[in-house]
């Protein structure tokens, strides 16, 4: 027992040294239309507390912060970032990727509830990494970039060469700073982002589908891995016929067919009423929370 505990402690320390100790969040209020709710405040406060308690540096980036950072560090992107664009969410997508390139570490949206230390992604044996062939990764030490499914089988890697599928961009992990993967997408967004006219193209140019397809294009790199949906986006599957609720939050939970069910995200009040959040979500690192307002998708020019 002592030997196993010592081994786990050493493993945690190694990853503290290896994973850049940054946690980033953003809140861009483009047109004074975004609503920062009480639930947002509680979630941001919790994320900051979890980050600092586990030795991470934490920053919630405002739009002004982002503009200043880009102007000083990446001036060739500044005109793009300041120019009018149909969907301002593209600028959010762009900046979170730029943060991953520059700092590494963790990016997480403000509608996530953090359950475990982000180092636990690498040290917890119950959190599994998968490669492009859907095989379990035996050695997490090879990881440089870690992606997360946003719902059950969203990656669509059973048909890996299909252009359909997605990885979540609300949670990103980069073990390596200055990883070209991130800056390649930033360059793509700079070129094509201003021409996007519909939400489907946002998904393809800067959103979750772009992440999946870039992951595929980099399949020759043996250090890009991903986690199944339950690690970051557990959800509740409700039978249309019976209203029976199925908790989809572990490797063995397969939701009811989508034609026979609907899916619900967890709410903050649900988590607050749990006796032990970590025990209930024993296979999850974070949980995406349903918050009814404040989406940056609403911020159009």
UniProtKB/TrEMBL annotation:
Parts forming coiled coils? none
The family database entries (InterPro entries) matched by this protein are listed as: Glycosyltransferase_domain, GlycoTrfase_DXD_sugar-bd_CS, Nucleotide-diphossugar_trans
Instruction: Supply one GO BP term.
Output: mannosyl-inositol phosphorylceramide biosynthetic process
What are the alphabetically sorted keywords of the record?
Transferase
Q: Which Gene3D superfamilies match?
A: 3.90.550.20
Short name of one Pfam family? Gly_transf_sug
GO MF terms on file? mannosyltransferase activity
Instruction: Please give the GO cellular component terms listed in this UniProt entry.
Output: membrane
Among its keywords, does the record have Transcription regulation? Answer: no
Q: What is this protein called?
A: Glycosyltransferase
Origin species, per record, is: viral metagenome
Q: What is the lineage of its organism?
A: unclassified sequences, metagenomes, organismal metagenomes
């Amino acid at each position: 027992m002592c030997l196993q505990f010592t081994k786990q402690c050493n493993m945690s320390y190694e990853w503290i040294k290896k994973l850049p100790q940054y946690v980033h969040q953003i809140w861009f209020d483009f047109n004074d239309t975004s609503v920062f709710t009480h639930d947002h405040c509680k979630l941001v406060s919790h994320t900051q507390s979890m980050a600092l308690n586990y030795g991470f540096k934490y920053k919630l980036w405002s739009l002004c912060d982002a503009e200043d950072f880009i102007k000083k560090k990446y001036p060739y992107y500044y005109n793009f970032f300041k120019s009018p664009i149909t969907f301002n969410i593209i600028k959010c997508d762009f900046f979170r990727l730029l943060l991953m390139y520059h700092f590494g570490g963790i990016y997480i949206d403000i509608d996530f509830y953090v359950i475990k230390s982000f180092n636990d992604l690498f040290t917890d044996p119950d959190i599994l990494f998968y490669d492009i062939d859907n095989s379990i990764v035996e050695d997490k030490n090879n990881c440089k970039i870690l992606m997360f499914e946003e719902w059950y089988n969203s990656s669509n890697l059973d048909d890996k060469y299909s252009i359909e599928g997605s990885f979540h961009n609300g949670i990103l992990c980069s073990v390596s700073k200055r990883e070209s993967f991130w800056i390649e997408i930033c360059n793509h967004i700079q070129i094509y982002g201003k021409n996007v006219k519909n939400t489907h193209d946002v998904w393809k140019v800067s959103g979750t589908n772009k992440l999946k397809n870039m992951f595929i294009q980099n399949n020759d790199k043996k250090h890009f891995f991903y986690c199944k949906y339950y690690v970051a986006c557990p959800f509740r599957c409700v039978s249309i016929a019976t209203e029976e609720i199925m908790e989809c939050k572990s490797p063995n939970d397969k939701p009811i067919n989508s034609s026979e069910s609907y899916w619900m995200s967890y709410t903050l009040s649900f988590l607050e009423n749990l006796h032990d959040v970590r025990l209930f979500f024993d296979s999850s690192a974070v949980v995406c929370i349903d918050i009814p307002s404040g989406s940056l998708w609403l911020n159009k020019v």
